Amino acid sequence: MFLAQLTERIAIKKQEQDIPFNYIPVASDTDVVLKAFGPNARAAALRARLANAQFRAKTANSMGAHLHEAWRSEFHAQKPAEASIPRMRDKGEGKVDINQPWDKLHPSAQKENHEAGKAAVEAVRLHPNNMEKAAEHVHNEWMKRNPKDDYNAASHVPYNQLHETAQGGKEADRAHIRIAQKLIAKS
Known about the structure:
Layout: H1 2-17, H2 30-37, H3 42-50, H4 53-78, E1 88-90, E2 95-97, H5 107-126, H6 131-145, H7 170-186
Antiparallel strand pairs: 1-2
Helix pairs in contact: 1-2, 4-5, 4-7, 5-6, 5-7, 6-7
């Protein structure tokens, strides 16, 4: 139904705006979708983008670097004395320093950020209008990827039991959703 309605409205807009008939819009062509459906079409455009697995993968990949650099920026602001100190974490291939710029980060640590990006993009797809459900999805996926350890024990609880703070709490999961939403909207 959505695709038929979209195709019909785009055809009408092509006639009204003298858009060439050989122009074929794709699901991610937000401008065409917005012109066809009007100002309330943003959600429809985002749903169309998120239906495309290739688009989701591309967004998740770029999100990994954004998430890592956002974490480093916040970590350095909160703990400036530790900004140059290695922060060693076991990422499956032995301990690696996660306190590195993205381009110097060990591939196993980059993989964790890519997986976090995938979880956030999937959460936006599953719960586009519910921040808390989307953040809970991100948190549950994080717990699956990260076994409970001394350094993360306080965050290794169900989402509804997390504290509100940005460092390991609900706000960190919400931040992943906001970053995913921004990347999806501008892609």
